[in-house]
TrEMBL record, chains A, B, C, D:
Name the UniProt record assigns to this protein: Chorismate synthase
Swiss-Prot/TrEMBL keywords: Amino-acid biosynthesis, Aromatic amino acid biosynthesis, FAD, Flavoprotein, FMN, Lyase, NADP
Source species of the chain: Aerosticca soli
Xref: SUPFAM superfamilies: Chorismate synthase, AroC
NCBIfam families in UniProt: aroC, PRK05382.1
GO cellular component terms, semicolon-separated: cytosol
Subunit structure: Homotetramer.
């Protein structure tokens, strides 16, 4: 598979630069018969979009999805589904100044070394604009997972800089621009972000995702483990520097008697494993977490070099997020959904003949 | 690619169960002309082996590698290299008791759900015995990386339960059975492990790996990013629950002005990124870290159910590691080497024509 | 890789239905720096297009290629190149009559069985309209092969029904609407096709392709052999029923002393092998041939059944080619170019270190 | 996937050189629960083996298959099945003479150019000995196809040099060493082969294969078409120069009214298509055919060059088949079975939800 494609049987190929004419993708391997129409993309694209609050980038993209193929009379046909999203609010002149230099913390330097040429406008292919297509593809995966298996994939912001939630309520998550699970803290977050923006700096974040309803058996040992593919999926998102499944790094300090999840007739007694053992789902909720680094595009000058090898100071103007993790929640959900759908299809390919042979645990 | 294969151009396919007749693998895509002989496997297999100190499992495997193909007169020929390792010290009777039950924290339950059948002897395919083949394949990758690119991949134990290194010295790492980078702490670690073993419990660990000499440009955006593939590689190792690149989760609490690595004429001023930006290597050392959960095979009884659905207590006898993370260092190194070699080959496929066009930074 | 993608390192993913809003594709893995602009697609798309003579379908498509990504300031950047072609002359009403029935010799019946749903308009995804994108992707491959390796890929019509060329001249091929290599026969071909069209019937054809300038060494044994991939590439073209490399089926009746190509100091003495031995190119011209069946869409009624299971007679109206093989020459060339470029990239990934060690033969 | 692997979900990876210590392979993706034991390999390996009559090579290999993994208590477990076959009758000294030269018609020249190194003993990796593993893997695929879907895959020799069958009887095929479908001609074939052997020359052959019981719906448009994958599978077999599906090249001279298979209530009226339309199976028997070139290893001297670039005469001693096509029948069957099983698994991954919606035709 090429490196702009993701997934083995449910394969998403994306294309497009931040300031090119369009971004888009081809979703291949979707089973036939799934109801699909453009309106279905609106909710998650809106959740991911910039410009919806003062706490994110002020670029305003229409994010209108045109379905070019693979759907007939409102249902998928089993043929590739092409999605096209025109770029409508690119301001490439913001980037003229940095075309000859390398912004610290950005992919400018590495793209140049790899390819010897790069599209400097808005970060080109390395821009988080590409994740719009992931979210759109994730909408298809979420729809199939929900309809066929009753799976629900939901995420929330679990840390913003030093701040952590002091309570948890799924209801709250969708009612504030931070995907924060505790409503009472929202004013505090707003003040925190306002101060950050004024300082011209940025901050990191942690996003947690929970997938409920995944049956036991999904995941392919030993290199296509469900957790290994989730790790790749989340680490492939721009700015992610760490991934955890279940207890993650906290497991380092735990004892085996504490970490291992015991089984009783009515189910597991705990979920330290995050719903995955030996790379295969246990039937418990899948728990994954991603660490987002602070945005490198900040107003505080940074030292760098230009393409002639001279020392320069870089100030990143453009329109940027002071915390990329905020809008990342739907992206993380989408990547988890893509992995789950792919594994679901792979599972039935190989294991369709296996009945329910193990004792069911609630 | 099937899920028992790893890598796109340098592809390793492994096979074998813990207590089956043999384990082994096929290494496909190794360039021709690389010197290779069985003795080259000894060092890393010895480092990974059980039974070398009282702090690991007491299973004694010969781990003798037979090269079945792909090498002619001491050099690789470009054809697939098959490696065979006979199992010589399997004690399957230890497992008779658990053939009808599901050990908590193990893959027994999930394999049964997925496949409807499982080889219970020694954990079958889910056993860490499989990682022997990864280490052997990693030897080939390390040899090619060193010879062709001067790359060196080294790991060490960065945390054992609550204990963290109080100093750092690469020399120390290979001189104690823990791969611990600070010699003065070794007696403390021995006492810690002795006490743990007596308690019948186990503990988690963190392994860090550093790859030096990787040139800028390796890694394929956007789904074949170097960090994404490292994440999958490390998370695919038995018992790993978390992966970090560079600062990892610490980045969540950082500011952009702190995290971003600035560039000067003599190089980067820091390496928070862990040597990867936009999924592509920067030329700095690659830094990766993996969290290992505490072994689930402990002497303390755990609650479970059997295949008839009755509640049972499980005590895992067999011969197990009280801390799987200890022997994991060469496994982590091997997986990093496999990813790097694969990316190196992919890089020259697409970018062989790109000269050294960017300003070199020391 | 998904089944709407072709190629391992130079990967082409196509999408689109004959009468949907658009067709297109994503070309991933093209090395950076290749000059590319929309005008480069005109020549080959014009050669493949319908409606250029009375001997092909009278559908008139603009076949205007929009490059959506992967090109910056006239050069490829190494990121995915998305190509979009809007459908402009679809007459779906022609197909209303056959929405409930299965045209003999078409994919209607099989798509319905596979997917349970199908887009009946113009054959949907099974239409040869999809090959437009193959030709566009082939333009990129041809350009790279020519520029980087001096490779030239050319095809011609080698048989039309019972007619075979009575002479051979590359110059003639591009000067008649049949890609026929002997100019003197063109009037005969025109009469032949006129008579065929009047009869409401169709006829088969054979297309030969020659790739010159391929260096020795391309092709990967044993399942990625150059000839095996050419066979898959050509057989994947609509209506192809047979593929030959070199002497092909004629080799069945040959003796070894006749077939094997001997080597002398100034090169091979013959090319029965078609430029491939053991799945690897020899340095001689690559010779491949494809058999096209006669179009199934003819005016002569055919017996079939409808979706309710009743017997019906089918007359295919629409606008169809009386010989699909005629326009197939650029499609065959494109597929050969895609295979060669992919193998060229794969070769340098694995064998870049191999110098010119074998004795050169002119 | 690497080029020593075949298949997307049912993946066979082979390894081994003709005169190395062993050949073998890893079969990954076999569904769990299939009965499998070493004795099941005997029949097809015996059919493929050399030395069973005077008309094939006189190398006598035991071809004993050791199952190293993936089977527990006589059933597949869903984990990779490793197969090992030791080489027991390699006579490498026969090849000393040709280590420095390139045999005409062989892969010596091309392997040398590609890899810069080659194992000259017995043709190394390019030897047809590799096909032993294909046949073994094919046994697994045939067993699953028969048990799960009632599919039967059978082949026969359809042409030997100039000779064609004058009658057809499946019973006859397995009762003569030629897989010839007309018993009365066997004495003629024996005389033909005896004369050929005496002349020191070799001859080509055609093998046909028929797969019965394949349900409609297998095959993935547009690049994973069933016929495209069959073409790759057959063309990947040593010495194959052409592949046909259904009428193959005969379709070139046919009219559409003749070629298209009409449908009636009791089924198709003909099978010119060979059971495949639009790349998807129709439910009719799959018909495929492969052309084998005459062996290049003959006693008649051939001109060549050596590695120093001097002109030489080559006489191939060793032990060779005067017609490789004779023993190829089980190899062709195996490759067809591998393709069908892979497509069957892929079909149920994507289309498991599709019921029997189309009108059934007997």
């Amino acid at each position: 598979m090429s490196s702009n494609s993701f997934g083995k049987l449910f394969t998403v190929t994306t294309f497009g630069e931040s300031h090119g004419p369009a971004i888009g993708g081809v979703v291949d391997g979707c089973p036939p018969g799934l109801p699909l129409e453009p309106a279905m993309f609106l909710h998650d694209l809106e959740r991911r979009a910039t410009g919806r609050s003062r706490h994110t980038s002020q670029r305003h993209e229409a994010d209108e999805v045109e379905i070019l193929s693979g759907v007939y009379e409102g249902r998928t046909t089993g043929t590739p589904i092409a999605l096209l999203i025109r770029n409508t609010d690119a301001r490439s002149k913001d980037y003229a100044a940095i075309a000859q230099t390398f912004r610290p913390g950005h992919a400018d330097y590495t793209y140049w070394h790899k390819y010897g040429i790069r599209d400097p406008r808005g970060g080109g292919r390395a821009s988080a604009r590409e994740t719009t297509v992931r979210v759109a593809a994730g909408v298809i995966a979420k729809a199939w997972l929900a309809r066929r298996h009753g799976v629900r994939v939901r995420g929330y912001l679990a840390q913003l800089g030093e701040l952590v939630p002091k309570g948890f309520d799924w209801e709250a998550v969708e009612q504030n621009p931070f995907f924060w699970p505790h409503a009472a803290q929202v004013p505090e977050l707003e003040r925190y972000m306002d101060a950050l923006r004024k300082s011209g700096d940025s901050v990191g974040a942690r996003v947690n995702v929970v997938a409920e309803g995944v049956p036991p058996g999904w995941g392919e040992p030993v290199y296509g483990k469900l957790d290994a593919e989730l790790a790749a999926a989340l680490m492939s998102i721009n700015a992610v520097k760490g991934v955890e499944i279940g207890d993650g790094f906290a497991a380092v300090g735990q004892r085996g008697s504490e970490h291992r999840d015991e089984l009783q007739m009515d189910g597991f007694t705990s979920n330290h494993a995050g719903g995955i053992l030996g790379g295969i789902s246990t039937g418990q909720p899948i728990l994954a977490s991603a660490a987002f680094k602070p945005t490198s595009s900040i107003l505080i000058p940074g030292r760098s070099v230009d393409m002639e090898g001279h020392a320069v100071d870089v100030v990143t103007k453009g329109r940027h997020d002071p915390c990329v993790g905020i809008r990342a929640t739907p992206i993380v959900e989408a990547m988890v959904a893509l992995v789950l759908m792919d594994q679901a299809l792979r599972h039935r390919a190989q294991c369709a003949d296996v009945g329910d042979m193990a004792p069911r645990i609630a």
